[in-house]
């Protein structure tokens, strides 16, 4: 075993086949081809249906070996089981590459730290926590997305590198067509959970149904609060809000982007969300909070409008402003195109290219 990946998202098992998220699966296969080495993953697995989750990339066992364990129903027992499996896992990899943060990822990073096993980190958040800093400091290298994260991580580990974001679409190619937007629609794509700002969207909808009666709000996603959100919509007669559910097929998701008018993302915390890149690519003016790495790429009144965290009033203000200002919409779209071009047409290496060079230099 030369390369061991510790993913920070679990796997899905459906009818005997194992699946992971598409971007991670594509990355692993690219590394396998570039290095001509089998890739090994360690993570928990849950039984389910491919159609109901983001894990839709089937793992080819000839290329990628998985070491997984079932996730228990009781949280405490699951953590004890994970700890024991990690502790006694036979660890012979030349390099362990850890997708960080995550519970399994953090535990495995500490094992590498304590037993002096070489490891690298792919960081998308939580690097400022006291228990994270020693792990970052000792890593052979750190890869991340966004200048804000890199600037902070550089202070802990100088061997930190930017990668091009792992995305579902080829943003270097121009759109082949655009749809005629017959409806006025505000689009949200993400988890239907509190920390994504979902309740602020619903509170804002109470006002927006009055001030912008011809606009709909479409929520694409699934999550712990989905049933509560559905009940809230019915109880408050929010006929302007549509809870669509998850859409994982990139071709089907594309249709919703192309038919939307505005993109809204009021999250409480993030790395840099892939969906903002997608909204820019599909020429949607973006309204977003400036959390995590978002402020390192997005600029208020340049390529987006900024909203305050946990503020329905801020959402109403900026949505109403943008809906009534066509020239501002076009200005944000134009600058959003420039932002994408600067990121995806730059000389920054892709994740697989950078990792391959780092592994070969060990």
TrEMBL record:
Entry keyword annotation includes Transferase: yes
User: Pfam families, from UniProt?
Assistant: Glycos_transf_1 (PF00534)
In the record, what terms sit under GO molecular function? glycosyltransferase activity
Q: Keyword annotations for this protein?
A: Transferase
Can you cite a GO biological process for this protein? Answer: lipopolysaccharide biosynthetic process
UniProt keyword Transferase present: yes
What InterPro entries does the database record attribute to this sequence?
Glyco_trans_1
Q: Which domain of life is it from?
A: Bacteria
Annotated Glycosyl transferase family domain residues: 178-336
This one is known as Glycosyl transferase family 1 domain-containing protein
Q: Which organism is it from?
A: Algibacter mikhailovii
The organism that produces this protein has a lineage beginning with: Bacteria, Pseudomonadati, Bacteroidota, Flavobacteriia, Flavobacteriales
